[in-house]
Amino acid sequence: MKRTVAAGAILALAALSLAACSSTDETTRSDVGVQLFQMPWTAIADECESTLGPAGYGWVLTSPPQESITGDEWWVSYQPVSYQLDSRLGTRDEFADMVKRCDAVGVGIIADAVINHMSGQSAPGTGFAGSAYEHDSYPGLYEPADFHDCGLTGDNDIRNYRDRAQVQTCELVNLADLDTSAPHVRATIVAYLNDLLSLGVDGFRIDAAKHIAATDVEAIVAELPANTTIMSEVIRGSGEPVLPEEYLGAGSVFEFTYARDLGIQFVSGSFTEPDLSNERPQHVPSDQAIVFVDNHDTERGEAQITYRDGDAYAMANVLMLADDYGTPVVYSGYAFSDRDAGAKTTASGTIEPVGCAEGAHGPQDFADGDRTCIHVWDAIAPMVAFRIAVGEAPRLPGVMVDDAYAFEREGRGAVAVNQGESEATLTLPTTMPDATYCDVLVPECAVTVTVDNGTATFTLAAGQSSAIHVEAVAR
Ligand code: ARE
Ligand code: CA
Q1: Pocket test for ligand 1, best of 161, 172, 300, 302 (most atoms within 8 A of CB)
Q2: Separation CA 14–CA 428 (nearest Å)
Q3: Where in the chain are the domains?
Q4: Active-site residue 302, yes or no?
Q5: Counting ligands in written order, which one lies closest to the CA of residue 212?
Q6: Which terminus of the chain faces fewer neighbouring Cβ atoms within 10 Å, N or C?
Q7: Which of 207, 255, 323, 324 is catalytic?
Q8: Mean pLDDT in consecutive groups of 10 residues from the start of the chain, 475 residues
Q9: Is the CATH number 3.30.2020.10 carried by domain 5-390?
Q10: Where are the beta strands (DSSP E) in 4-83?
Q11: Does the pTM of the predicted model rise above 0.70?
C-alpha cells in the first residue's frame, strides 16, 4: 500500500507559507520541521534566513511563548502565569517579527501551546513579565473555580497513568490543572491561540494533550480557523487507557513508538526493516503522525539515541528523513549534563540569542550549554533536499549486510548507513537511472556513488551515512 508522506495539515501549512511569499518556489519546500528548543525569537528569525530557508525546512517548533514563572531551568517555560507573549525567549514584538521573517523565506511557525495547566507553584509569586499569581488564581484569566480538584489522590497529583480520570483531571507534577470542559476556560484558551494566529503562526503543538480529554481538545480546535495545524503530544504508554488515536479528530499526534522503534536499533546494533506492506503496527496513520528521533523530554529520559551518540545519531536522523512514514521533526537543542539546566542566559536574565549559522556541522564533544545545531549537520541538513527530491515515491524493501543497511525510495533516491566498526560495502538493486550520483551527505560532492545496471554500490566507513537522489547527479 502506498502511503502519503506529508500530513494534510502540513501541506496546508506549506500552502499558507507559499501564499504569503510568492517568490518561494514550491519545489524548495519540504514537510520537515525542526524543534529549536529554547532558542530565542530573534535567533530563530536569523536561523530561518541563514540556514532553514536555504536548506528547505518547512517549519519550526518553538518553545512556549507565554509568560511563565521565573527561574533558570528550561522547564519554567511549561509553567504559564499569563498569556502575555513576554518571556526569557523574547517579547511579543520579537515573536511577531520572527513569524514574519520566517514566513518570508517559506518557513512556518508552530508554537508550543501549554493549555492543560498553569503553574506548579504552591506559594504566590510574580511571573517573568510582572504578573502576580497563585497556584489556582491568575488575575484577569482564571480563578480557583476554573481548575480541576480531582479529589482522587491524596495531593491531587496524578499517581496512576492507567486511570483515565486521574490522568485528565488530577495534576501533572503539581501543575494547576485547568477545567478545559468549562466554557470560560475554553474561551480563554481560544483567545490565546487566536492571538498567536493573528501574528501569523501556522499552528500548535498541544503540550500534555494526554491530560486534556480529547473532546475538550477537539472543542477548542473547532473554534480555530480550519487550516490551523495541530500536533498533540500524547505519549503512548503501555497499558494506559488514553491513546494517541483519540486525538486524531483534532489533527496530528506525535508518534512516540516510531522513536522507540528507531532508537532500539542502535542499542541492539542491528537494523530491522518495518513492515512496509501496511500501516505500521502501534502507529497512527502516516498522514497524521509527527515522527522524531528524540525531543527535549526524551533526550533527558527514555531516548536510546541522542546528540551524544554522534554519527549514530546522524544515522538515525537519516533513516527517519528517508522514510515514507510520518512528518518528521528534527530536534535541535543544547548540550547538558544537568537535566534541569536552562539554555545560556545573558546578564539581564534572557536567553542568549545564539543560532547555528556558524554552528557545529557534525558531532563534537560539546560543552554544556553549546547548541548542538543538529539541523545544520552535514549528514542531516541535505536530507531535507533528499525528501523534496523523492516526493511521494514509496520506500522499497532494503538490503542488510552485517551492521549496514540501505533502502530506496522508488526510482528517486536511496540511503545507506553503517553502524558497524569496520568498512562495509552494500549493493542495492535500484530502479534509479544509471548515473554517478553525489553522496549528498558529504559536502561539495567529494564522494560519489555509482548506479550501474540497476545496482547502487555504497562503500561506507564505520559510522558513515550516505544518500543519493535524482536531483544530485555528479557532473
Ligand atoms: C517541574 C519539576 C517538577 C515540579 C513541577 C512543578 O521538574 O518536579 O513538580 O515543575 O513545579 C516539563 C518538565 C517537568 C517540569 C514541568 C513544569 O519535564 O520536569 O516540572 O515542565 O515546569 C508526562 C506527560 C507529558 C509530559 C511529560 C514530561 O504525559 O505530557 O510527562 N511532557 C510535556 C512537556 C514537558 C513538560 C510538560 C509536559 C508539562 O514536553 O517538557 O514538563 O508542561 C510515561 C507516560 C507519559 C509521561 C511520562 C513521564 O511515559 O506515558 O505520559 O509523560 O511517563 O512521566
Ligand atoms: Ca488536565
Answers
A1: 172
A2: 33
A3: 5-390, 399-469
A4: no
A5: 2
A6: C
A7: 207
A8: 35 37 54 98 98 98 99 98 98 98 98 99 98 98 98 97 98 98 98 98 99 98 98 98 98 97 96 83 92 98 97 98 97 98 96 94 96 98 98 96 96 98 97 98 97 97 98 94
A9: no
A10: 33-36, 59-61
A11: yes
